[in-house]
Amino acid sequence: MQSRYVTIHAHPEGTPERELFALGTAELPALAEGEVRVRNTWLSVDPYMRGRMSGVATYIEPFTLGAPLEGAAIGEVIESRAEAFPTGTKVRHMGGWRDVAQLPAERVEPLPALDVPEQAYLGVLGMPGMTAWAGLNRIAEMKEGDNVLVSGAAGAVGSLAVQLAKAKGGTVVGIAGTQDKLDWLEAHGVKAVSYKGKDATQLTAALNEACPEGFDVYYENVGGTCLEAALNTLRLGARIAVCGMISHYNAEGPSAGPGNLAMIVIRRARMEGFIVFDHWAHYPDFLEEVGPQVAAGRLDYEETVVEGLEQTPDAFLQLFEGGNRGKMLVRL
To answer: Three-state SS across the chain?
Structure first.
C-alpha cells in the first residue's frame, strides 16, 4: 500500500512560502509485529509546527527535510498486528500530514468513549483544549471571580480558555482581530477588544475601558503588542500563563521584548511559560471535567475545515493570517 504525504525540502526564513511544501508518495513496508496501519480521516495543523520547520531543536525535535511532516491526526485502523487495536478501531496519533500512517501500537491511542464528533479530539477535547485548561488551572491557578484576559481569544486554544474562565464568574476579556471573531466573543459573554491598528498605548486604553479593575490572569497566545498592553493592566499578584507567541513565529531575527517588564515587579506578578505535553498526565482530569460539557452542548467550539491532503499547507499558512476561527482542521 502507498501513503501520500506532505513534506518540505528546505528550512523557511520568515513566513513560509506555499512553494516550500511538496507532495510525496511512499510504498509502505509489510506490517511488523506490534504495528498498525491507519487511514487518516482528520488532520490537525497548529502554529507550533512552524518552529519544527526551522531545523533547530526546541522543546521538540525539528522536522526532517524530505520526510513526511508530523502532527496530530484521527483515523481508523485498517490493518493491525497489535492485539489492542483490531481493524476498525478509531484512534488518535501523531502521524499526520499524510493519508495513511504506519505506526507502532504504543504511539496510538483509542478515542475516548464520549458522544462527540471524532474530530473534537483534535480540538476542544484534544491538545488545544487541554492547553487551555492546563494554562488556566495548573499554571495561572485561576480562582472563582478572577478577571481574565486572553489574547488570540477566538483561536483553537483561546476560544475554550475564555469559556472556561467565564464559568468562574469574573470579567473575561478577549483580544482578537476580525469582526466575526469579535462578534463570536461578544455572543459568548466575553468583552471583545480588537488589536488591529492599535499600538500598545491604544490597546492598553481599550483593555482598561473593558475591565477598569485590571486582570488577575492573562492567558498569552500572541506576544508583541498584546503582551505589552496586558502588562499595563495587571492587578496585584496577577498570574500570566504563556502558551505561545504567534506574532513572533515567522520573525527573521530576534524580537524586541516589551519595554514595560518592570510591571511584573510592580504588580508582584508571576509569568510562566508551559508546554502542554509536560502536563499530559492530567489529560484524564481535563477530559472528566470538560468532556461531558462538550457532549451536552454546554461548551461551544468552532472549527475551520479545509478539504483534502493537498490543501494541508494552505490550512497551515492561514493560521498566521487569522484565517481560522477555532480549530483549523483538514478533512480527508
So the answer is: CEEEEEEECCCCCCCCCHHHEEEEEEECCCCCCCEEEEEEEEEECCCCHHHHCCCCCCCCCCCCCCCCCCECEEEEEEEECCCCCCCCCEEEECECCECEEEEEHHHEEECCCCCCCHHHHHCCCCHHHHHHHHHHHHHCCCCCCCCEEEECCCECCHHHHHHHHHCCCCCEEEEECCHHHHHHHHHCCCEEEECCCCCHHHHHHHHHHHCCCCEEEEEECCCCHHHHHHHCCEEEEEEEEECCCHHHCCCCCCCCCCCCCHHHHHCCCEEEECCHHHHHHHHHHHHHHHHHHHHCCCCCCCEEEEECHHHHHHHHHHHHHCCCCEEEEEEC
